[in-house]
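Name: PPM-type phosphatase domain-containing protein
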Amino acid sequence: MIRAEARRREADQRDWLLRGTPPPPWVRWPPPLLLLAITFVQLVTPRTLDLSFLVAAVPPLAALSYGPALTALVGAVVLALLSLPVFELGHPGNSDQLTISFIALLSVLFAWVRSRREAQLVTVRTVAEAAQLAVLPPLQEHVGRVRCAGLYEAAQHETLVGGDFFDVRRGPGGVRALIGDVQGHGLAAVGTVAALLGAFREAVLDRADLEGVAGQLDRRLVVDSADQEHTELFATAVLLEFPDDASVVRIVSCGHPQPLLLRGTEVTELDVPSGAPLGLGIAGLAPPEGLTVPLLDGDLLFGLTDGVCEARDATGTFYPLVERLTAMLKADAAPEDPEGLAERVWADVLDYAGRVRDDVTLMVFAPGPVDKADPEPDRS
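Structure predicted for PPM-type phosphatase domain-containing protein:
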């Protein structure tokens, strides 16, 4: 599963001053280079040129990327260069040296504070990544006979888990997949996501059909919201099943955006009957109706959350997923691999909308031949 770690690291390095993240490696080079440049220029220019005011900038630069000990060493080198006549580094007076000494001490303090903050940030991000792996573990490249790829991006930039959820599991009769979106997003939705994923993993093994799986997810939300006054938990979801004994996909939708069938260069939005969202007591309402779609060799299934189709450009026009996806497929003579397709769609969404304001999940499924199915269910 692609969660855009590389993009997040690039953003952290690009906006490290605003984010408070550890600085990129190149930030360590300006302090010594500036000090060498000042010393060299001072040695080759007339003694009347005083550059001592420039060396005062070296300790604060060091504090941006060095620890307190190394920043103190840089400050000491600066004061030593000012004191040694052989370098002829200007003609600073006592007040100038005291001022630069004070700046160097402040720089050491700033470096200590920055180092402590970076250490705390690393700890917080480590815990967040552990929570992410617990709630949304990495998607396996193959589950049974189905090759899987996808991309997940939380709307709240600094969070790694949001309101979208997904999973692919091996059941007794085939591979079952879930893509959904809970009410709200960000950290407030994580508890609901964890509850739904736990219910899905149990239902994959216990329920004979997708309608039963949807009913168990719905019951989970109904029970969780029963004791919470003025709280309505609901989620949209689409469930897919790739049986071991047939080249078909069975789909059940609970108020979720329809999956797409990619066949060659054609993109078809599957007309799955849309049932009520999970959490509204669908057992007492009309139960969701499933749709069975025959599959051919090379067919791909494309699942998504509404963060994709609701992305807008500067004029407020929604992202035309079917048209743009069709154009991508026609532009390439070679078949698109699932992982590359998910990355290309995400890049196209960003090019179109600039940014998205909702959680985004893209998933691509490439079913393999029926005779290559793994008969053993995944009970992890």
